[in-house]
Write a structure and sequence with these properties.
166 residues, mainly beta, globular
Length: 166
């Protein structure tokens, strides 16, 4: 069931001031734009090409996503894919992507930024705003000793159908 509560966001745009707004989490992503209502009450459709990032926040705060703590200081503990994004204007942001590729929105990536908190919980990065991505590591996948993994793998192999048996 989709959430019915509007979410506070901070929209970062290329060469412009950030905008505080609210979005409906179930319907803000469209095929070529996002829909939001500014704090002043104006409805806007912002094309992905004009967007740099959309930062979800539960309370207002400084617009410091790309200037303060935009990289992890050490290996993150949150499970997922530790990724570094390079944007068109040269800014860099690291984040944790969901390990399940089906959870990624078609128009971009939804990441958990470094030092996530009340004013920067999740960040949506449109694909057209990016010039590069790097996978820094996989966090939280695996577990157990080598013997535990071998036992699990042999159990998984035993349950698999054989296609090329002779």
């Amino acid at each position: 069931m989709a959430s019915s509560t509007a979410k506070r966001v901070l929209l970062y745009r290329f060469d412009r001031q950030p905008i505080e707004a609210v979005v409906h989490p179930g319907s803000y992503l469209e095929s070529d734009h996002i829909e939001l209502i500014t704090i002043g009450g104006t409805f806007q459709r912002v094309p992905y090409t004009d967007m740099k990032a959309l930062c979800f926040a539960s309370e207002p705060g400084r617009a410091d996503l790309f200037t303060d703590h935009n990289l992890f200081e050490r290996r993150p503990k949150i499970p997922g894919l530790w990724t570094r994004f390079t944007l068109r204007d040269g800014d860099v942001l690291e984040g944790i992507l969901a390990s399940n590729l089906l959870d990624w929105p078609q128009g971009g990536f939804l990441v958990t930024p470094p030092r996530a908190g009340a004013n920067r919980q999740r960040v949506f990065l449109p694909r057209v705003a990016l010039t590069g991505t790097e996978l820094m590591g996989v966090v939280g996948i695996g577990g157990g000793s080598t013997s535990d993994r071998k036992k699990r793998q042999s159990a998984e192999i035993a349950g698999q159908l054989r296609i090329f048996d002779r």
